[in-house]
Design a protein that fits this description.
Layout: H1 21-35, E1 43-46, E2 54-59, E3 82-87, E4 90-99, H2 100-105, H3 109-131, H4 172-184, E5 192-196, H5 198-205, H6 213-216, E6 226-230, E7 233-237, E8 251-257, E9 261-276, E10 281-294, E11 297-298, E12 306-307, E13 309-314
Parallel strand pairs: 1-9, 5-7
Antiparallel strand pairs: 2-3, 4-10, 5-8, 6-7, 8-13, 9-10, 11-12
Helix pairs in contact: 1-3
Length: 316
């Protein structure tokens, strides 16, 4: 009859967790998802496991209805459709080389910090790349005149002057005018978002109408950064809001629709651990591979064009 015993000094998944990549991966992915803001609000496409460096997304032209005349043929609609291409060209990594002496003497909280910091760093980079797409909102460019065509003044009507910094405090008039611009462009009412920097949150908290229950909410918001709701549009605050490229330090608010931009992930956040004997250390690396692009944003505020995203420059 076989006998059984219970060893007391076995190497277990608990004692060896520093060398199990899955532990690191789970914690980093959780931190990554927790710190994403804009990436959770826009269209996301899964390109994982697929080959290639470019994604082609059809951008069909909206058609119009035609009156049917008696005994006449129907009116055919024909359009040469366009597309949006997304280059998968953004590969970012976060690496730490942890020497054995540190492994032996450091508290477990060190690993918790590294995994949390890796998730935060990668999430911030993804959000940065998405936020900067706002520079091309409404026909603006990403150069010296960034946001030149996108800015809407504090009174809701003043146009931004190219390459200057005539930002103004966020006002109710500018918010309502921006919402109207989305409405005028036939942008769907659902899936809109309003991303603001901390300075604009400070402004809103000083306006009585925005501190009512309708704005603050009931505390059940679960999306990262969400602070309330304005005229039916969820409001999110982020310290990662973009800045204008002029001489000042104006921050930028973005109001848009989910389909205004797209995030394509080819390699999601992954973590790898490798022991480097020549250094008597463990190399820990977390990385992600993705691409971003403006999807529904072919516009200029002053022209008769449409857009699904608008920007407002505000004081830093």
């Amino acid at each position: 009859m076989a006998t059984s015993f219970s060893p007391t000094n076995s190497v277990t998944t608990t004692t060896a967790d520093k060398f199990i990549p899955d532990i690191w991966s789970d914690e980093i992915v959780a931190a990554y998802k927790k710190n994403l803001v804009l990436a959770n609000l826009v269209m996301k496409m899964n390109f994982k496991g697929k080959k290639g460096d470019t994604v082609h997304i059809p951008a069909p032209t909206r058609g119009s209805a035609n009156a049917k005349a008696a005994e006449a043929a129907v009116t055919l609609i024909a359009a040469t459709e366009s597309e949006v291409t997304v280059s998968i060209n953004k590969h970012y990594e976060y690496s730490r080389l942890i020497e054995d002496i540190v492994e032996a003497q450091a508290l477990n909280s060190m690993r918790n910090f590294y995994t949390s910091d890796a998730g935060y760093a990668l999430a911030r980079q993804v959000d940065t790349d998405l936020v900067q797409l706002g520079r091309s909102a409404n026909g603006g460019t990403a150069g010296a005149a960034a946001y030149a065509a996108a800015y809407i003044g504090g009174d809701g009507t003043t146009a931004y002057v190219a390459a200057s910094n005539n930002e103004s405090a966020l006002t109710d008039a500018s918010i309502r005018r921006t919402i109207q611009r989305l409405d005028d462009n036939d942008t769907p009412m659902d899936n809109r978002f309003f991303l603001i920097p901390p300075s604009s949150r400070n402004t809103l908290m000083g306006l009585a109408r925005y501190t009512e229950q309708a704005f603050v909410g009931n505390g059940n918001a679960i999306r990262t950064g969400e602070i309330g709701n304005l005229y039916g549009i969820p409001v999110f605050t982020s310290s990662n809001a973009d800045t204008t490229s002029g001489s000042g330090a104006a921050r930028v608010c973005l109001m848009g629709h989910k389909d205004s931009m797209v995030l394509v992930e080819q390699v999601g956040v992954r973590s790898q651990v490798q022991y480097k004997q020549e250094y008597l250390a463990t190399l820990f690396t977390s990385d992600t591979l993705y691409g971003v692009a403006a999807l529904r944003n072919a516009a200029s505020v002053g022209a008769a064009k449409s857009s699904a995203m608008f920007a407002l420059a505000v004081p830093a």
